[in-house]
């Protein structure tokens, strides 16, 4: 749903349909590594729809295989295409949720799924209350489900085992915070996977990932 206009959109308006919105900002997701705050990474995209017709959000920026117009018009099966393009849109958010749906069905063979059961399962596995809106303050979040798609694994791994120094926990392949030398301070892993020493990072009721502190 690449529209921020008011109104009900088909088919997302229908019952038992999973309406998917987009999160992310171009400048951040275009980089090789996501270097930004949670409010940037999990912000509702400026082109995404929102409100009651949107059930869940997923990243809307991808690097996808690129086929130029001349290649499509003169298709040659023998040619190998290795070009990529940076693209945006809820057309990329929706397939992520589709993939999660397929995974959920394959891992729960004892459940006879219909649309509503699958939708409920997707929402159950998703992460709640982590979305932001840097474009319109909190206006778009007032009547929008604050739900980010997740497959229930909640673990992020690097393809080359490389992680930013200050990132930890389930968002960094279970990486632990390093011990601060010559200090009695604990180096704790916060709820959003950042190492730090203040109460913001170390208090369990604030979501501290205790297993990944020093």
Task: Explain what you see.
Helix 4 (90-107) crosses helix 5. By secondary structure, this protein is α+β, with helices and mostly antiparallel strands. The chain has 2 domains: 20-148, Rossmann fold, CATH 3.40.50.200; 155-213, no CATH class. 21% of the residues lie in helices and 12% in strands. The protein is built from 6 helices and 8 strands; from the N terminus they run E-H-H-E-E-H-E-H-H-E-E-E-E-H. The protein is globular and about 65 Å long. The model has no long low-confidence stretch (mean pLDDT 81). The strands form 4 sheets. It has a two-stranded parallel sheet.
Produce a short descriptive summary.
It contains six helices and eight strands; from the N terminus they run E-H-H-E-E-H-E-H-H-E-E-E-E-H. A hairpin with a 5-residue loop joins strand 7 and strand 8.
> How would you characterize the largest beta sheet?
2 strands, parallel
Mean pLDDT: 81
How would the global form be characterised?
Answer: globular
CATH architecture of the largest domain: 3-Layer(aba) Sandwich
Low-pLDDT residue intervals, each spanning 5 or more residues: none
Helix content: 10-25%
The gyration radius over C-alpha positions equals: 20 Å
Give the termini separation: 43 Å
The tally of strands reads 8
Largest sheet: spatial strand order: 1-2
CATH class assignment of the largest domain: Alpha Beta
CATH fold topology of the largest domain: Rossmann fold
How much of the sequence lies in strands comes to 5-15%
- Corresponding CATH superfamily of the largest domain: Peptidase S8/S53 domain
The ordered string of helix (H) and strand (E) elements is: EHHEEHEHHEEEEH
Q: Which structural class matches the secondary elements?
A: alpha+beta
The tally of structural domains comes to 2
Count of DSSP H/I helices = 6
